[in-house]
Amino acid sequence: MDKSVKRIGFLFLLLCSVFIYADTEVDNTNQGIANASPGDYIIRSNGQKVLLTQADIDYARRQLGLIVDQESQDIPSLVENPSSNGTNWFEEIRNAFSEVWRFLVGLPQYVPSSFFNTMPSFVRSIFFVLLFFAIIGILLSHVLGIYKNRQEWKPKPDSKLMFSYFCGSGSFQQKKIYKEAHKILRDKKWLRISIAGLAFRLGNLTHASKVLMFACSLLYLPMAILGFLEMTLRCIIGTVWLLCAGVVHWILLFILRWISYIMIPIWKIVDRTVRVALHCSHCYSKFDLPKFKCPYCKTIHTQLIPSRCGILVALCECGHFLPSSALSGRSSLDAVCPECDSNLAEKG
Fold this sequence. Notes:
Layout: H1 3-17, H2 30-34, E1 41-43, E2 49-51, H3 54-63, H4 70-79, H5 89-105, H6 113-117, H7 121-148, E3 161-162, H8 165-185, H9 195-203, H10 210-273, E4 278-279, E5 286-287, E6 291-293, E7 300-301, E8 313-316, E9 321-323, E10 334-336
Antiparallel strand pairs: 1-2, 3-8, 4-5, 6-7, 6-10, 8-9
Helix pairs in contact: 1-9, 7-8, 7-10, 8-10, 9-10
C-alpha cells in the first residue's frame, strides 16, 4: 500500500485516540477535585461547567492538608519513582506522553476560562492535537533552516579565507537560516507527519482501488479543514517564535562579535612575539611571516594570522580549517617565501 495511505491512517487513528484522553467530570468536592487532573471539569449547582486548572487542584489539596510545602511536594515525584529502574520502559514512555498531554490540557489556565468552558471536550482535544503538530512543524522548520545553511560562510574580500562565525559569517548565516525557516514554515507540502502535508498528499493520491479512493475522498474534506487550522497555528506561533529566536540570536552574535574584536589585537601581539626570523635560500630575503599553503587545495594564504577570519583557526575556501596562529600549530603547514614564492626548507 502507498506510504501516504499508511500515514493518513496513522493520523486518523491518532485523532480518534484523543477522545480517550478527553476531560472527565469529577465530583464538586475537595476530595474529587484533589484527585482530578488539569482539563477535567465539575458541574456546579447552577449547572455551570467549570474546567479545572492546576491551581484549582492545588487549592483543594491544600484544603485537605495533602500539600504542606510546594517544594517538598515536587521533590519526591522526581526521586521516588519505582518505574525509573529501567525495567518497564513501555510504562515510562506511556507516562512521558501522559505528562505531555497533561501539560497541553493545562494550557487553558493561561487564557480566559470562559473561552475554553464554552468548547465541547472533543473540540478542545482536537485543538491540542493541532497545536502539538503545529509546534513540531515550527521546531522542525527552525532546525532544517539551521541544517541547510550550516556550511554558509561569508568570504573575505581580496582573500581566500572566510570570515569567522563571530566576525561576519554568523550574521551572514543568520539571515539565510531565518529566511529558509520562514519559507519551510509556510510550506504545506514539506512535512509528511503534519496534517496539512497529509491532506495535500491525500488530495493528490491516486490508487487502483476504487474503494480506497472513495474512503480517501471522504477523509479529504475534514483533513483539509484540520490542515488549514494547523497551518494557521503554525504560521502565527511560528512567526512569533522565529522572531524571538532571531532577536536572541542577533544579541548573542553582537556580544560575541565585540568580544572577538577585543581579543583579536591581543592575539596578534602574542602571535608576533613568538615568531622567529626566517631566510629564503633562493632570494635571500628575511622575514618573520611567510605565506602558508593549504594542505588540501594547495591555495597559498598570505596573511594567516589572528584576524577577523579567526583567532586560532581560519576557514579556507576549500572548506577546511587551518591553524592561524603559532600557538595553534600554524608551523605544521608548508611555508612559502613571501617574495619569490619558493618553498621554504624550514617551516615557519
